[in-house]
Amino acid sequence: MERRPKSFPLDLEVRYLNPERPVPFEVVSGRTLAMSSCELRFIAEKLPQIGQPLQIFIDWPVLLDGDVKLQLIISGIVVQTHGTTVALKIHRHDFRTLGLRQWPGAPPILPS
Predict the structure, then answer these.
(1) All domains of the chain in start order, with CATH
(2) What is the pTM of this model?
(3) Residue 58: closest CA among 26, 16, 18
(4) CA 28 and chain centroid, separation
């Protein structure tokens, strides 16, 4: 019997983009539904294609050392869509600290 990672309900704003798309990046918003160690499910403002790579940016609700804002950056591939719900297979994830120029609702700091 195969064990599946436990999925946790999560309701946070997400911003996402296709990292293979040429500049200018199109940043789209959505909301998380659930996350496990290998999959993220979210509601998409604009539905991506199955097989499309995405980079997801989530402002993490817990502060580092009580005062440093964090952003979770997830890279993965869209494996399923149903209505406005997207399932993303997670290939990589990183936490980054947010500088002073970041504020709630600001666009994510994109990789250079």
Answers:
(1) 8-97 (2.40.10.220)
(2) 0.80
(3) 16
(4) 11
